């Protein structure tokens, strides 16, 4: 039980630390204390603070989702994943659009790092269609509608390529679960509790709805980190998913 929110952490909730300095990250992590066990380090924080962001969180006993969305030729991705996997992250992202060879290479890179370090292999997640796309924006890139078809195509390819799961919108979770089964990870950003604004997210759902629809984990950033009272925001989210 946490002394700040009065409610225990839940590994299904990942808080996105989208800030531009190590100190800002540390403030959020200190403020949320034991109520959050899983954090996401994305491009903004990693490019600002570097690998110390990951090592700090691991030293604090937190799980880390390192979201760098790699997308390059298989050889480059294999060795880049091996390099970042050595930091001890639990989840790492690549873009599913990089294709089968690239996703297989990502898993190989993660396995190499795990063998060297003696730690468990980090899970590789493949990003399908970003949650900031709506139909109009997707069609502008040449994408075929409905978006769901493309998400399912990439999820099937990711599953066949041996990655551990996908990142998709909560609205696609049920259909992905039907195709990919368990224990495939379906990690969903685009989560908006009823008290939060949608910002630039387009394909969204509430935390409880996303979990009901088959999401394994929820990525939540601004509704917590930009809230007037982040501890209260976490507490409300945890209560909502527990039906309290
Ligand atoms: O890979 C991701 O985590 C990701 C994929 C996606 O399709 N949409 C998406 O929003 N994200 C990330 O999830 C987080 C969502 O943050 P908020 O919109 O502030 O809750 C951000 O850090 C995004 O980089």
From TrEMBL:
Q: Which GO terms describe its molecular function?
A: orotidine-5'-phosphate decarboxylase activity
Q: Which residues bind substrate?
A: 18, 40, 67-76, 131, 192, 201, 221-222
Check the record and name the InterPro entries matching this protein.
Aldolase_TIM, OMPdecase, OMPdecase_AS, OMPdecase_bac, OMPdeCOase_dom, RibuloseP-bd_barrel
- Enumerate the catalysed reactions: orotidine 5'-phosphate + H(+) = UMP + CO2
Q: Which CDD domains match?
A: OMP_decarboxylase_like (cd04725)
Q: In which pathway does it act?
A: Pyrimidine metabolism; UMP biosynthesis via de novo pathway; UMP from orotate: step 2/2
GO terms for cellular component: cytosol
Report quaternary structure and partners: Homodimer.
Name assigned to this protein: Orotidine 5'-phosphate decarboxylase
Species name: Allisonella histaminiformans
Gene responsible for this protein: pyrF
């Amino acid at each position: 039980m946490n002394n700040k929110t009065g409610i225990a952490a839940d590994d299904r909730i990942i808080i996105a630390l989208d800030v531009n300095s190590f100190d800002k990250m540390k403030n959020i992590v200190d403020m949320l204390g034991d109520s959050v066990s899983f954090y996401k380090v994305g491009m903004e924080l990693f490019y600002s603070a570097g690998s110390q962001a990951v090592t700090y969180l691991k030293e604090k006993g937190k799980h880390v989702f390192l979201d760098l969305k790699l997308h390059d030729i298989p050889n480059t991705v294999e060795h880049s994943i091996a390099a970042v996997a050595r930091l001890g992250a639990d989840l790492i992202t690549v873009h599913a659009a990089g294709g089968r060879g690239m996703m297989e290479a990502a898993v190989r890179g993660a396995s190499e790092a795990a063998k060297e370090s003696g730690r468990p292999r980090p899970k590789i997640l493949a990003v399908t269609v970003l949650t900031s796309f709506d139909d109009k924006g997707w069609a502008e890139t040449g994408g075929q509608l409905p978006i769901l078809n493309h998400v399912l195509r990439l999820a099937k390819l990711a599953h066949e390529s041996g990655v551990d799961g996908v990142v998709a919108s909560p609205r696609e979770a049920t259909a992905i679960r039907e195709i990919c089964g368990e224990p495939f990870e379906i990690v969903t950003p685009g989560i908006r509790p009823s008290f939060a604004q949608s910002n630039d997210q387009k394909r969204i759902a509430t935390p409880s709805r996303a979990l009901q629809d088959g999401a394994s984990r929820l990525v939540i950033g601004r509704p917590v980190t930009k809230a007037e009272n982040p501890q209260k925001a976490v507490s409300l989210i945890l209560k909502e998913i527990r039906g309290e």
